[in-house]
Predict the structure.
Amino acid sequence: MEQRLNILVVHGPNLNLLGQRDRDKYGSLTLGEINEQIRLHAAQLGVEVAFFQSNHEGALIDYFQLETSRAADGVLLNPGALIRYAYSFRQALVDLGKPVMEVHMSDIAKTGVNKQINVLDDVRVGQVCGLKEQSYYEGLQQLVAYILQQRA
Ligand SMILES: O=C1C[C@@](O)(C(=O)O)C[C@@H](O)[C@@H]1O
């Protein structure tokens, strides 16, 4: 039997507070509720998901260096504001060498600081922004389609 795709779902700094943050930008669901919805979407797509969140760049790097992470097929990633300065985080993703789909709930072209820099510009295979929690579901679908197309 063919092995199911295994996708890491990784949330960066401050995303643990979803549900309490600006609802106009991020919607009203908590991170736990979003992860549950991602799990349902993953089941429909026939893929496995593993979740991780940290407020710390080093902890995220440690997670990407785990043997279990290195065995995954791709990363669905909301990096938060790390995209604006976190070059060690970027390097960990380069070293991981798996397709990365970048998602943001808000429209990052309109909000946040240091908008001219995104350290993932040359790392990600795609980006979905501005759809609140739907960014994750759409991003997962696009990531799985990308991986399957690469293997066809
Ligand atoms: O924490 C976040 C959340 C975010 O990544 C988003 O999902 O819209 C956008 C970032 O600018 C911000 O720092």
